[in-house]
Amino acid sequence: MNFPKNLRSLVLLGLIVSIGFWSCNSRSGKPKVLVFSKTAGFHHESIPQGIEAIVKLGIDNDFEVDTTTQAEMFFEENLSQYAAVIFLSTTGDVLNTYQEADFERYVQSGGGFVGIHAAADTEYDWNWYGKLVGGYFVDHPGINDPHPNVQAGKITVVDASNASTSFLPSPWERTDEWYSYQKMNTEVNVLLTLDENSYQGGLDMGEHPIAWYHDFDGGRAFYTGGGHTNESFKEEQYLKHVLAGIEYAIGDNKELDFTKAKSKRVPEENRFTKTTYAYGAFTEPTEMTILPNLDILVAQRRGEILMFDAETEEIKEVGKLDVYWKTEVKGVNAEEGLMGIQKDPNFAENGYVFVYYAPTGTEEINRLSRFTFKNDTWDMASEVVILDVHSDRNICCHTGGSIAFDKDGNLFLSLGDNSTPFNQADSKFINNGYAPLDQRPGNKQFDARRSSGNANDLRGKILRIKVKEDGSYDIPEGNLYPVGTEGTRPEIYVQGNRNPYRISIDQKNGFLYWGEVGPDARADSMDTRGPRGYDELNQARKAGNFGWPYFVGNNYAYHEFDYVTGVSGAAFDPSGPKNNSVNNTGRTDLPALAPAFIWYPYGESEEFPQVGSGGRNAMAGPIYYSDMYTSDTKFPDYYDGKIFIYDWIRGWIKAVTIKENGDFDKMEAFMPNTKFNALIDMEMGPDGKIYILEYGNGWFSKNPDSGLSRIDFNGGNRAPTVSKISADKTSGSNPLTVTFNATASDPEKDAMTYVWDLGNGETKTTEVPTLTHTFNAIGEYDVKVTAKDSQGLEGTSTAASVYSGNIAPEVSIKINGNQSFYFPGKKVEYSVSVADADNPEAASDLSTLYISADYIEGLDKAESDMGHKVMSEAMMGKSLFTTLTCKTCHKEAEVSIGPANLDVAKKYNQSDADYLKNKIKNGGGGVWGEVAMPANPEMKDSDLNALVAYILSLDQVTTPSLPVSGSVDATAGKKPTTTGVLMLNASYTDQGGQNIKPLSGSKTVLLKSNTIDMGNTTDYIGGYSSMNYDGNNLVMVPKDEASFAIKAIDLTNISSITATTVTIGELGDEYVFELRLNSPTGELVGTGSFVQKNKTGSTDAPNYEQLTIPVTGSADGKLHSLFVVSKPKNEGGTGPFIIAAMTFNAK
């Protein structure tokens, strides 16, 4: 689980000691409640006042109160001590999957829940929570109207018999922020409603509930919409109302009975392991099928059929189909070839395997055929042709090609629209990523109405047939078009597909699922062309039309479009779209649309935020049921009825929970910390484990990260993990004494022993994760540590390399001026120095010193440093070359016993690096002459990388090093951004010696923009909070005295700081800002004040102000935490307001 294991253990121990044995009776002692106030969205200023008020209610009414913003407290063993949990103005996604499941179990076991105000603005993608809280926030005054968000209003008491309302007047007049709600749970008992005529703005609901309660899923839930303002928590009637809700949620304070919990606990991610069978062994794998004996057949697009032998774990080619897999048109990639493979449901008896492929020849078809595969032999002569599908060739794209069977033995085959998604050449009006609807002569490939929209064409469909022994087939009952329907094909089960690349069928209820790869438009054009592009994960409970090319996403409609005039027509009608294309050979009237299941664009998805953003390629994986498998190592029953979906481009796997009626319920990450390299197929094996096929990260090629793997589940004892091994020094004179430390953990908290592999054949064992050892021989040592638990399971660290006999040089970079910031338009002056303890004269030869500067977008963009890394590695390789036996046979530019290094560089390129490393390590001959190259089997991979980098660099155009001292442009010639970072790198490699390896030292200096991203502020005190609006990080300034900090600030040469403030309307009070070092009460180094005036004359338009605070304190050239303290000049300010940016101005 994603919480500290030591915390869980301590709490569990404490509970056992304090409450003894479980009982279904009332608890001993006072009831206890937990107030939870984490915010992942808007942070309410009233939260501290709410906490204070609830704590006082507890003191006055004999219940205990714990408070937290830490979601890690939401695990079963901890929650069990509380009679009720109070969500106090929580916002956004505050709990992860593990915590959500444990909270569901808590309520199902008899726990209580209280939601206050923004608790309804929380967890929108968790349907269970939505029913618990009773409804989701949708609007309040001031969002979509010009009215203030806080107003006086009138509340009607609906149920005066309830303890939370019996004392209230009706109407009850009070001032608050009035929420409107969506997705209301109709089973709640409404206590109070809001008179919508008593205030202005917000979304009218008609019947407008504002407080309610209900028994829910074994527990008790109370919600009240009030509580936005600080004053709410000083109102006697409001607090009495809240108190009664808390007491209802507490109930009789009984011990929780977790045997009643229906939700299952989520298995921890470390119980799953990706076990790789093959890596880099495939050339464009497409689909696989797992045989009953766990052998796996893998189809490759170019026609090969490979078999992974489960017993020997070897891969061999067992067949090859002669396929069309590349076009004859320059610049056009074909996607056809061998596209799909699936075993017959009765494979154990008949040995049948079905494939979908594009046979070579003049006929433009794709073919579904059946072959026999027995005794590891693919019988090419056994082919039985089932079905041919016309497909236009020498164009791109969209093949589909996935094959699946349902529980009744019906075969499903997915087919793409065989249409080109790119723009037409030499055309004024083009697709631009919207629906391809071009029916002009010569543009047929740009009209998906000829295929997907054509009821008489099999392309852009999912077919369902029942194959007979002789290869003919029947049409099952319930397909989209009955046999004999004019202008249709009866094989069609689903129509309106673009590229249904991977399909899956629920083996219990027969529901069909598929991933629909969508179009590329980046923005909506709803009045002219239609919606932006979406990928879809779809579900068909019965035959249906899913809309393409007339609709996409949640059935968003495209428009008719005239490619001659550029004039848009009407939007297509979802109740019955018409196919009026001249390329249509089928019926004009098409079936009404079926509903979408999951859909998401390139950007963030409002409906399904878990999918993230970026490139997209949706796929459907298996639906799991534990009772269909007998293996002891099958997946746990937590995943029963869930479908695994995945995205090739984004690299994630999600488990989707489906309601009993088939509707979407929730989505959760599966193994989010495991890397997947372009998943192209996923199957559930007969052993109840998931098998995955990875295409690898490259198109139309053999990728070194392609792979075949199995996901293993471990329901018992888990092995320890060693997350880190460190050394107090990595190099030094011989002999060298080093102290190593390991960071290791055991999931079950077992005691561990540590076995240290010292890299020289020697091992040592300790009971603690530390070891001090002296190396007495010159050389490099790769030290690893293995942690073993009491049951013999173990985990091993990566290697920590140390070198005895040479001291790595030290590189320093001195920046003249400010050490925190760069200033756009100004040069940054620097100087680099080198010190080498083994060579006092090192500074006299700096030929291996390489200095570079780059401007990168954010500190996490480490790949921007690759150019520097390559050059540093090459210089290490050059020095290494001079110390090894290589120099006896090779010279840099002249032929010797072996070829010149320069000639080698000219013959090979970077893609041949692995070949060259293998040649150096294993030796060989015949390439450059008769003299064989000796092997170097002991050479380390890091040294091989350096040597090859050096050799290949000889024929590459490289950026020369910057001078030892000088100046660089602050943004390296690029456009400045607030998140941009100037990165200065310097590395130097010493000369080593005879049989002594050269070592490198390096230094990196990072300078931030002088306009800081407000998301980098921290240490909020007294009500400060952060928020993100439209991609911008902002800081909310409270109306009372408070502060926040900015870390690692050097005030050298800073004259002032300018803050950009934003208010709505007029602030009406003067605010004073102070700059202090290291704490809110530290040395005062600047002060300023301002009054925000209403410049716009509007009560709802933003007003921007520039506040400049002079820096008056002395700068010492050191890095400090700079605290910004704000306070109203008069008691009780009129805030809050926003700081949108802060700029440090140079003198």
UniProtKB/TrEMBL annotation:
Keywords: Heme, Iron, Metal-binding. GO terms for molecular function: electron transfer activity; heme binding; metal ion binding. It holds the Pfam family PKD. InterPro entries: 6-blade_b-propeller_TolB-like, Class_I_gatase-like, Cyt_c-like_dom, Cyt_c-like_dom_sf, Glc/Sorbosone_DH, Ig-like_fold, PKD/Chitinase_dom, PKD_dom. Residues 721-799 form the PKD domain. Transmembrane segments: none annotated. PROSITE patterns: CYTC (PS51007), PKD (PS50093). Residues 872-955 form the Cytochrome c domain. SUPFAM superfamilies: Class I glutamine amidotransferase-like, Cytochrome c, PKD domain, Soluble quinoprotein glucose dehydrogenase. This is Glucose/arabinose dehydrogenase. It comes from Algoriphagus ratkowskyi. The lineage of its organism: Bacteria, Pseudomonadati, Bacteroidota, Cytophagia, Cytophagales.
